[in-house]
Amino acid sequence: MKPQASTPEQIIYLVDDDEALRDSLVWLLESQGFKVAAFASGEDFLKAWRPDFNGCLLLDVRMPGISGLELHERLKAQYCTLPIIFITGHGDVPMAVAALKKGAVDFIEKPFNDAELLRLVSQCLAKEQESRARRRQDAEVSRRLDQLTQREREVLDLIIIGKLNKQIADVLGISIKTVEVHRARVMEKMAAQSLAELVQNVMAIDGGAQR
């Protein structure tokens, strides 16, 4: 599979204290059309990091100062959404496996195959792009929810749990006709083309709030 180059706003952030390996990886990735920003330490990356970074993070497990695992923990605490691939030596595999359980995407063991690294990076970038699109959609759904009146939200909540118009009318003490009017306004304000789309979008927001 040919590697999928990063989109214009995506950057591969490489954090490794090994200068020779850093230079080699930068050359490899840039030769395939990826944009790369390299850092010699976790401290340097933390100074540069901003919440709007897009792309993925290639992170050495074992570094002087802030280790890769510690950097991962600090970034998680700051709600960093960059997918992380750990670069490990043979003895670091147990640590990398532990990192996977804490949310890292994958790890690759030195000496690694270039094609395998490119495959992992492409997967990470695709995952990050999809995740970013989902966050944008969720934010738009939340914005639209905020535009509903209290009564429209009450009707929506009853729609979500599967109540029919007559049942909604009984629960709220209003006429079926009034329910139909509110329901139509909810569909319009939420820009939903179908009841299924409406339910899926709202439940995605509710599910994200509970995670």
TrEMBL record:
The keyword Transmembrane helix does not apply. It holds the Pfam family GerE. Residues 11-125 form the Response regulatory domain. The keyword Transcription regulation applies. One of its GO terms (biological process) is regulation of DNA-templated transcription. GO terms for molecular function: DNA binding. The modification 4-aspartylphosphate is found at residue 60. PROSITE patterns: HTH_LUXR_1, HTH_LUXR_2, RESPONSE_REGULATORY. Residues 141-208 form the HTH luxR-type domain. Keywords: DNA-binding, Phosphoprotein, Transcription, Transcription regulation, Two-component regulatory system. CDD domains: LuxR_C_like (cd06170), REC_FixJ (cd17537). SUPFAM superfamilies: C-terminal effector domain of the bipartite response regulators (SSF46894), CheY-like (SSF52172). PANTHER family: DNA-BINDING TRANSCRIPTIONAL ACTIVATOR DEVR_DOSR (PTHR44688:SF16). This is Response regulator transcription factor. It comes from Zoogloea oleivorans.
